[in-house]
Amino acid sequence: MIAKLQRVLLVLWIAALAGTLVAWPLEWIPGYAAVTLVAALLVGHGFVLAGEFMAMHWTNQRDTAPRAGLRDVVAAWWQESLHAPKVFFWRQPLRHGMWKDHLPAGAPSARGVVLVHGYFCNRGLWNPWLSRLTHARIPFIAVDLAPAFGSIDAYAPVIDAAIVRMRKVTGHPPIVVAHSMGGLAVRRWWIDRAPDDLHHLITLGSPHHGTRLATLGTTQNAQQMRVGSDWLHELQAAEQPATRARVTCVYSHCDNIVFPASTATLSGTRTVHLPGTPHVAMVDHPVAWNLLQEQLRMAPAHPGASDPAPCSRTAP
Q1: 266 Cβ neighbours under 8 A, 6+ residues apart
Q2: What residue numbers bound the domain in which 53 lies?
Q3: Spatial distance between the Cα atoms of 94 and 100, rounded to a whole number of angstroms
Q4: Of 30, 96, 198, 204, which is most buried, counting CB atoms within 10 Å of its CB?
């Protein structure tokens, strides 16, 4: 559904741009109006992102997370302005099915990987990861969460099916990497399962305690991600404390979607701070990939082995 919707939006954007470029020399519209419209179509997303970054920077001034300097914020805005179109105009609408789930027989990895995307995204978000995992012959499943704008609770069966399927292939609980809302979806699935049903969960910019930006959302899952929502309180109350030792929370003081920054962390987990890294670009940060490789190397060859103790660090 998301891929189709994003393709429709992409076609409308191309049509508007092409129509303006044709109408301009033919003087069907005034020159100043054509220039304004072309500029809005080409760089309008940068202005929207600028609003997000300003709100983020102002909100984070009163947060307990490390503070970002103005130079960090500007650099993160520029990075996201270049990175987000690649994801929302290319990977997700046009290349979401490029890499199929990889479940090779006799794969050398003792663990499989399940990848879970976030809000208004699909599995195409993970394409660079899927390429590397395929070439490394590491088993993986990348899910598509549906319904796109329904309750986060509804995603549990999708995640469960992927994890059950992976366990049948590898014989071991998998590692899950989840971006943004995907981290909440996995936590929701986990409350009905044993702590050791996952080897480890890595969340990238997940709004574990909500995000102020969700106050602008009207969909059910956006409302659930509001800071202080009843849904988040119920999730935390239902969780098993033992699961926290199996979680790594990656967050950033320049996350333009999840802020205040500390809302992307959870007590009792390992936390990794990525300075100057915006929300979508966090997926492609080398530290995120390295954390997965670390877990793959550390994965025990037998069930029941203990995981490393939680710790915190800041990535370079």
Answers
A1: 208, 244, 247, 249
A2: 2-94
A3: 14
A4: 204
Q: How far is CA 155 from CA 68, 150, 206, 240, in A?
A: 34, 9, 15, 19
3-state helix, strand, coil in the chain (%, to 5): 55, 10, 35
3 state SS of 297: helix
What pLDDT does residue 315 have? Answer: 64
Residue found by looking up tokens 């470029």 in the block: 21
Asked if residue 104 is part of any domain, the answer here is no
Tokens of 192: 């009905």
Strand order in the sheet with 247-251: 140-142, 113-116, 175-179, 200-204, 247-251, 270-273, 312-314
* 132 and 59 within one domain: no
How far is CA 8 from its chain centroid? 22
Distance of alpha carbon 233 from alpha carbon 133, whole angstroms: 36
Give the global pTM.
Answer: 0.92
Residue-wise pLDDT tens digits, 271-308: 999 999 999 999 999 999 999 999 999 755 444 444 44
Distance of CA 20 to the CA centre of its chain: 34
Q: What are phi and psi of 142, to 5 degrees?
A: -110, 120
What are 73-105's pLDDT values in tens digits? Answer: 999 999 999 999 999 999 999 999 999 999 987
Joined together, the tokens standing for residue 85 give 């179109």
